[in-house]
Design goal:
The protein has about 150 residues and is an all-alpha fold. About 60% of the residues lie in helices and about 0% in strands.
Length: about 150
C-alpha cells in the first residue's frame, strides 16, 4: 500500500507545469512564432526570478509575452524588443546580462568567492599539517618510558 502511494506521489510530482498564454494570437508567419518563443525563453520573469517568461504563469510574464507578441507583429527586431524590455525592467530581465561596470559583481562574484574558498582551504590544510606534525625522533628518555610501559 505504501509503495502504491509513493509511486502515485512521484507520478503527480513528475508532471511539469507549463505557462498558459491567456491571450494567444496567431502570427502571420512561422518565423514570427519562432522568434516569439526564442525571445520569451531568454527573458527572465522578474516576479518568479528563476523562470523564463515563456514558462511563468505570473501576470507580469503574461504582460511581457503580450508586449513581445505585439512588437513582433509591429515588425520590430529582436534587439529592439530586448532593448525596450531592458530599459523598462533593467538588465535583470535578461538571463545573460551584458558585462558592464554595474554588472561586474554579478559576473565576477562567483569567481571571487571561489578564490576565497580556495585560499581558505589551503590555509587550513597548511595550519592542520603544522599543528599535527609528529616529532622527528624520540629522546633516549622517551624510548625508555615507552619500553617500561610496554613491559619490555
Amino acid at each position: 500500500m505504501k509503495i502504491k502511494v509513493f509511486i502515485l506521489i512521484l507520478l503527480i510530482l513528475s508532471f511539469k507545469l507549463y505557462a498558459v498564454d491567456k491571450n494567444p494570437s496567431e502570427f502571420d508567419t512561422p518565423t514570427q512564432e519562432t522568434r516569439f518563443s526564442e525571445i520569451t525563453k531568454v527573458l527572465r520573469c522578474v516576479v518568479c526570478q528563476n523562470q523564463s517568461v515563456a514558462d511563468s504563469n505570473a501576470e507580469l510574464a503574461q504582460d511581457v509575452r503580450n508586449l513581445v507578441r505585439n512588437q513582433i507583429l509591429e515588425g520590430q527586431t529582436d534587439q529592439q524588443i530586448t532593448d525596450f524590455l531592458v530599459e523598462r525592467y533593467g538588465d535583470f530581465v535578461l538571463y545573460n546580462p551584458p558585462l558592464q561596470p554595474k554588472t561586474y559583481v554579478l559576473w565576477l562574484g562567483p569567481l571571487v568567492l571561489l578564490l576565497i574558498a580556495l585560499i581558505s582551504l589551503i590555509y587550513f590544510i597548511r595550519r592542520h599539517a603544522v599543528t599535527t606534525a609528529a616529532p622527528d625522533s624520540l629522546t633516549e628518555e622517551e624510548r625508555n618510558k615507552i619500553k617500561h610501559v610496554l613491559g619490555e
